[in-house]
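As agreed, record passed on underneath.
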Amino acid sequence: MSGCDCTPTVSDLKPYEEAVELLLSHAKPPTATEELELHDALGRVLAAPVRSSINVPGWDNSAMDGYAVRVADIPAEGTSLRISQRIPAGVAPQPLEPGTAARIFTGAPVPEGADAVVMQELTCQQDDEVIINTVPQAGAHIRRTGEDIRQDEEIIQPGVRLLPQHLGLAASVGVGKLSVFPRPRVAVLASGDELQMPGEPLKPGMIYNSNIFTVAGMLRALGCEVIDLGQVEDTLEATKQALLDAAGQADLVIASGGVSVGEED
C-alpha cells in the first residue's frame, strides 16, 4: 500500500473558545477618537469618561407642591401662617420671613430660611393664610443640592455603547459633545462558485447567497461600517487576493464559505 499526504483532520482544529481567544489576542484596541454631537452619538462606543460640571439638583428644591416653612414656626398642628410669597419652578425666591409660609411648587428653589416643605394635602388655605395640619420634620420634602449627581462625578464610563438614556444623562449636566471611537470597518466576502445573488430565478445547481446578508445585517446592527466585497471565486489565488484587498481597507475581515477539508474548500 502506497503512502499518501494526509490533509488536516477535525482533531487538528482548535476549539471554538480557543480560536476566539487567539483572535482577540491579536486584536489591537482602537486609539483614534472623534467628537460627536449628542444627536449623532447614539450606538457609538464612548472613548472618554463623562463628568458632570454641575450639581444635580443645582439647588435645594421642593419635591412637592405645598408650602415652604420654618419648622420652629409650627409648634402644633393647626398653626396658621401668612403666605408671604409664591414660588413656581424657575423663579428665584426671596428669603422666607419668620412666621410666614411660601407657596411652593415641585422643582422650585426652597427659599433661604425654610427648612421643610409641607405637602398641600396637609394644609388648608384661607385667603392669604394657610393652616398647617401637621408638625413637619426638618428637611421634609426637600431635595438637596447634588442629591442625584455631584459636581465632577463620573456619570458615564468609557467603553459603554451609548443608549438613549446615556444621551439624556449627558444633556442633563450640560454636555453637548461626546468623545467616541470610530465605527469598526468590517469587510465581508463570500466564496463559492455555486452562489447566486437573490432577486433572479435560481439557476440549476446554484444556491442563493444568504449568508452575506445575515452577516452584514448583524454587523450594521452592532454599529459597524460594512464593506461588501461581494463574491469570490473558488480558487486559492482569488481568495488570497480578496483577503489582501480587504486587509488594506478594513479593521476586520469576515469570509463566508467552505473551510473544511474538501477538495473544493
Observations:
- Residues 56 and 172 are 8 Å apart (CA to CA).
- The radius of gyration is 33 Å.
